[in-house]
Specification:
Layout: E1 2-7, H1 11-23, E2 30-32, E3 42-46, H2 51-64, H3 67-77, H4 84-97, H5 108-127, E4 134-136, E5 139-144, H6 151-161, E6 166-171, E7 176-181, E8 184-188, H7 202-214, H8 222-228
Parallel strand pairs: 1-2, 1-3, 5-6
Antiparallel strand pairs: 4-5, 6-7, 7-8
Length: 243
């Protein structure tokens, strides 16, 4: 049987996995716990977070890795692919072998890791413009369904922009939410929010009316609209529905 490591998806446990590869000589194979399927071949080993191991790897990475390499790791780790954790773990190992490996784009593996990172980065950027709130009491609610784990990358943007209001951005697919109050935010996992929290209100209707009024029918370009605002995101955009 082959040993494989399981972790909670966090950067902290990823870096402990790096330590395990170097010190305990474990194979560089890593899965998120909720994505691993038990089988007859793999022997799963759950990563146990230890501050000393995490800090040792973290300090070494900050000393040796470029900012761009660190970005590839941070964004790539949050890609939804089952293979992403193993790929990012191996990317870190390659960078420890030679920090310049992060820029060897002729290497197909490095390019694949870079591609993962860019997909998460692009989706994070898009969702800064694809979040629509409705008001429920004193709290503003928004529901999104991104492909990847992007809440950590959009949190500061919305906290700074809407710091004077309390809001929740709920990732329905992953059942986790960005909770913000008085400009301070946290991400809460394992939430199943009631659908009634996201009912149409005057804010939703205002979005629909605004979108309709600024549309110039003679200049409509559905193909371009779908490129800029992919159809898979439309389910939570009120302007794609008639008021």
């Amino acid at each position: 049987m082959m040993d494989v490591m399981l972790f909670d998806g966090s950067m902290e446990e990823l870096l402990v996995a790096v330590y395990k590869v170097y010190v305990d000589k474990l194979p560089p194979v890593l899965f998120r716990e909720d994505q691993f399927t038990p089988n007859l071949i793999d022997h799963p080993l759950k990563i146990q977070f230890l501050e000393e191991e995490f800090e040792r790897v973290r300090r070494s990475m900050l000393e040796k890795f470029s900012e761009e390499a660190l970005d590839i790791i941070t964004y790539g780790l949050n890609h939804s692919s089952v293979q992403a954790p193993t790929m990012i773990l191996k990317f870190i190992i390659k960078c420890f072998e030679n920090p310049k490996n992060a820029f060897r784009y002729q290497d197909s593996f490095i390019m694949e890791c870079t591609k993962l990172s860019r997909q998460v980065s692009l989706e994070s950027h898009r969702f800064k413009g694809f979040v629509r709130f409705n008001q429920f009491g004193t709290v503003f609610m928004a529901k999104i369904n991104p492909d990847h784990h992007i809440l950590p990358f959009i949190a500061d943007h919305f906290a700074e922009r809407f710091g004077d209001m309390n809001f929740i951005i709920y990732d329905e697919k992953k059942q986790e939410a960005l909770l913000c109050q008085d400009g301070r935010w946290i991400i809460q996992k394992n939430l199943a929010l009631n659908e009634n929290l996201f009912q149409i209100d005057t804010t939703t209707e205002a979005w629909q009316i605004y979108f309709k009024n600024i549309t110039i029918s003679a200049r409509e370009n559905p193909a371009q609209q779908k490129r800029s605002m992919p159809v898979r995101y439309w389910v939570n955009l009120p302007e794609t529905e008639s008021p």
